[in-house]
């Protein structure tokens, strides 16, 4: 009954690949066969466990099943004709017949009720709603009776379940008895205050209720109030007696529902003679035996149903649970569990779900059982415990798809770290899926597995076998297990008794085809043949693995790993093979492929590593299947003699796994070309080049179990040579030497490390190993300081290119190509930048041309833009200048280490090339910086302040603290500041943009007058606001067909401590609003705009702007009104319009203020509208317009669903889900007294829906969606997932009278 646990899994990328490389190739996985019980379960559609439990009870009621199967096609019709006009097909009984036949005959673990619920008229969401099984029992019987009108089965529900109660009132004075009969299909018995079913029946049918004292009875014969006694008796007993236990009650003191969980005993056999009016019959006429118990687990606001059923016809294979064995082994399991398993953290959902999956034998859990198992584990449901913080279970599993995975075609959830293995899995009696170990093909030589010794089944009377049918799972239980359902959160809810005199014929025992129509038997057989063929095809395709064979003659041992001899040809041979076959079969197949193979053949699992191919485990046992040997798709197998490859012995196993190291050796720079010429292969040249001048790099592979000393011997180095590992803090290889000119650092391995293996030293593929001889330290390239070796290779002594630009610009027209000269200056990382500049000036010979002008060095970014000048007091490395890059020599002063280089402009954001530069001290204040900038441009006065640029490169917020130093404000080198005219606004001031709202309905010149000249705005600054029929705005304020204009009125700066009334007063002083006639501020309405859409009305004249949560930069809209307005906090301004009777249109829109302070329910709004229009509230039909979708949402029959987390029922409110009524929403009204049309859609709505469909189709094709409202591109809001309303359970039945 956990309706929406997994409703979103199909939308997210949740992994459903099973383990072990088993990937479905043949499409959808076929349904798994029945379990050991040979009974079929029913799939849960999300919340249909109540339906599943009742259907299983009816299926195992043989008389009900027989009556249903006795109805033929001549009476019920044919399902193929249900869509034909005029055909009277009784769909519900036909679908019920098919479902029962599938449950009896189809070879599948569980059947689907989708077709049956479709015949009920249920939509997809109905399958996730929770309902009461007693309510379903009555509604289903009623639907069947209506469906079978006019057939021979029209009375079989009445015959099987109908009983009669006679209620009597006897006058104590005259003895007159007044009787009234009452029919029933099930009895509702009290649970509160009683301890057993017999006691409840005794209180109902034996105890008398006296009318005395103030509670007298008016006797018809005495014609006055008299003392009387009231009693009830069972007059007619049905063959099947259904008892509904009234476990759900209401506490009037706490005003909440609760569930009775106390002990309530019910017998397996009951005699109803004491409760009957006539008691002179045989005992068998009153004796009943229990055959079904529907159990509810959970609370009064949600839970789960399953059913205990007695298999009367012995259709299932019942296996007695070995209780004694369980009790003995359970203690051992508990002890082992306490020692091995960590303590369960009940507040951590990850720990709870992982523990549940780990404790399952199959290492997986059915999705529709996960919610129930969570309740079993922590005695609380997911919704109550975790949903608030972690959301639905489906989303939780998807967000942890690194931990969980879906298997068995998405029907089970398992752990990725411990996936279900067909080899080790021991399926439970109710869970046998295709994940079990694949069956081995018939092999006459294969030995049969010994069957386990089973204890003989104890002899029991006919039909005494009980099963627990829990959705898809079916398990055997003992009759004594029923006593466990007497009390607790998991307890009996409905009891089904049958008369003991009802006997089953012998031919019905163990015969599921008994009385099943031949057409349904044939249909089930054809379905079984189809499913079996699907299973065979699926097994064949799913058990075929793709192998890569590597033949020994194509490989040689090199660098500690196997390398292919020829790089031109592929060294592996693909082979498709059935993993159910044995290793011997694979060996024989390879022998047949390699006819020239001589000698022994060993098959070893291999793996391709960076160093080459490495061998691991050799397959020795020829009788083991490939599946058991762990061979999966894309496995690599090496075919060899098991000893050597090309005369070289090969070490196998994970401990000898090779590591590919970059061996670095020094060499002399003047021998570089000579050594390169001597190399015969191109590989040598590549390694030489990669190492750069001064270092030579070579990739070599070594066994992971080899010691560092053995590596040194393999490299042919003497014992006095040093081995060094690249320093972790340094940069790799020549990158460290090239970027910034720094030397690379290496750590010398101590002598003790020579006896440690590469694995122990944590050396990985790609790590560098420097080999140095003692004489290497004689050169200036290598210096040793303790255990650290610094390599200063000639690659650090490179160059910097300096480009001279006389005008300092980038790409300026005045820069002629001959004037932009370049020179390469030799440089190192330790060289000062002032030396680089001096050398460049000398070599370029520009001292005479510049006449002593100052120059600075500036870097250039990838776009060619000049970066701030570099500090010439620093070295190349410290300044972050990379060698072999270009610096520009430009006019200007170079900054010192204590200075900042800033760009600035006056008034507006600077354009490229029009900003000025200035050098200021980092310690100077904002005021001093501003003064320096004003002096630089020759401006006077104090009416200036500084602003920073925002991320859009536009003028941003002002720098408020003028006395703060630039360093504290984190103003960085190269940043741009804007010198803005005007005094610095005080702290707490807001800058708000104001728009004027022009309503075309108010065509008075007083309201439409607008000063265009003073404001200076053009037509491009006018925004047209479309209405509900033509826009996607969430709150359009107008009726369909009208438009309103928003015109910019300017900006205001006001303190956030000012009131709303102050804001209105200041807005009216704007020049653009001088012609707008507003007597007082109460005649003006202020809206807050969001994305140029009306969002909310600001209310509360004396509330400050801070309390109204207004921030600087917001857009406001002012609307003149015809009357004063002072909205309260809970007042909602709605646009209401009455529908024109008989037409698909509405009268003009009117504004209505609805007071929702005390009551925000639909009845309150309906009463307000009725008073407004002078109509009766019961005659009004209301609907809210959804402009985003061009639809109407009806409000008349809506009831808000009770919260699952709190027992108290929430009050119905239109301000909450799903309607969320707010200012500006449009509400349509229909007067049902004169208008029979309940459809609110107008022609404009239909055109809007058509536009949405066209846009969706355009988006699906990949093209740009056209904007239908004409305002411009708007950000598409995501769909709001409305809460599903609680609806009554119903079944739609056709008319067959």
Automatic annotation (TrEMBL):
Residues 448-462 have a biased composition (Basic and acidic residues). Residues 40-500 form the USP domain. This is USP domain-containing protein. InterPro entries: Papain-like_cys_pep_sf (IPR038765), Peptidase_C19 (IPR050164), Peptidase_C19_UCH (IPR001394), UBL_USP40 (IPR057763), USP (IPR028889), USP_CS (IPR018200). Residues 1-11 have a biased composition (Acidic residues). Residues 423-439 have a biased composition (Polar residues). Residues 1-39, 414-465, 1254-1297 are annotated as: Disordered. It comes from Champsocephalus esox. GO terms for biological process: protein deubiquitination. GO terms for molecular function: cysteine-type deubiquitinase activity. One of its GO terms (cellular component) is nucleus. PANTHER family: UBIQUITIN CARBOXYL-TERMINAL HYDROLASE, UBIQUITIN CARBOXYL-TERMINAL HYDROLASE 40. Pfam families: UBL_USP40, UCH.
